[in-house]
Amino acid sequence: MTTPGKDIIAYCSSCKLDLAHIIVAKNEEKIVKVECNTCHKTHVFRPPKGDVVKKKKKKTTKAKGRARKSKKVVKSNAEEWSEQMALKTDAKVAPYVMANSFQAGDIISHPKFGNGIVIKVVGTQKFEAMFEDSIKLMAQGRS
Ligand SMILES: [Zn+2]
Hints:
By secondary structure, this protein is mainly β. It has 2 domains: 7-44; 77-139, no CATH class. It contains 1 helix and 9 strands; from the N terminus they run E-E-E-E-H-E-E-E-E-E. The chain has one helix at 77-87, and strands at residues 7-12, 17-27, 30-36, 42-44, 93-95, 107-110, 114-122, 126-130, 135-139. Strands 5-6-7-8-9 form a 5-stranded mixed β-sheet. It has a 4-stranded antiparallel β-sheet with strand order 1-2-3-4, with no helix packed on it. The radius of gyration is 26 Å and the shape is rod-shaped. It starts with 6 loop residues before the first strand and ends with a strand. Bound molecules: zinc ion. Zinc ion binds next to loops.
C-alpha cells in the first residue's frame, strides 16, 4: 500500500530523472503530490519514465476521420456500424415496421436491435440491415 509519507519512485520534472520521492498527498488509490528527495520540490506525481508501459487500448466509438492506418485491421461489425451511423447523423430514423418498405441507405430503428442502416434490398420482401451487433435480414412490405 502506498500511503502519504512513504517513498516512491517518480519522475521529477525539475531534476528530469526518475528519483525517490515522498508521497505528500493522495486520494483513494491515486498519488496526487510527491516531494522530490533530491530537489525537495513538491509536484504532481508522474510515474517514472523508465518503465512507462504504454498500454493504451483506445476504443473509439467515433470512427469518423480515422486517419492512421498503421495496421490493417478487419473492422468489426460494430465499428462499421458506428462509421456508417456517423455519416448518417442527419438522416431521418424511421421506425421499423414490417408493412413498410425501405431502401438502401435508410436508417431504421428497431425496438430490439436499435438503430440500423439498410444495406440492400433483397428480393421484394426482404432487406439487409446492419445493426450494432450484426447484419440482419429483415422482412418488409408485408402486412
Ligand atoms: Zn527533483
